[in-house]
Design brief:
Helix content is 26%, strand content 39%. By secondary structure, it is of the alpha+beta class. It is globular.
Amino acid sequence: MTMTTGEADKILSDNFAPWVLALNLSAESLGDDRATLRLPWSQALAREGGGLSGQALMAAADTATVIAVSAARGAFVPMTTVQQSTSFQRAVADSDVLIEAVLTKLGRRMAFADITMTAERSGELAARASTVYALLG
């Protein structure tokens, strides 16, 4: 049974640091091997020049991976980032970003994901990331 967006939002509120919660991420959709989160546009997350900061996008990609793993396993389990690599393709200004994490492999102790970050207003790809997680529980 697929996790609901309400359950995913509860995982966010119960398990992440206040600075991650300040991103105001919310679950848009979930599947057996994926999660899509919304990163709402905020001037507070913009860098000089008005583009969304790369740090906010990287934190959102990292967080989306946790939700994708949780959805695949049916519940949150302790986990930690082992590796993350991010490539930025274009600046995002004045647009929410949809962060889709797709699990490429989920084992008993490790998870691998590819993440796309798309500016909702234009539909253009803003960044890509890949993550590797150690599953601790």
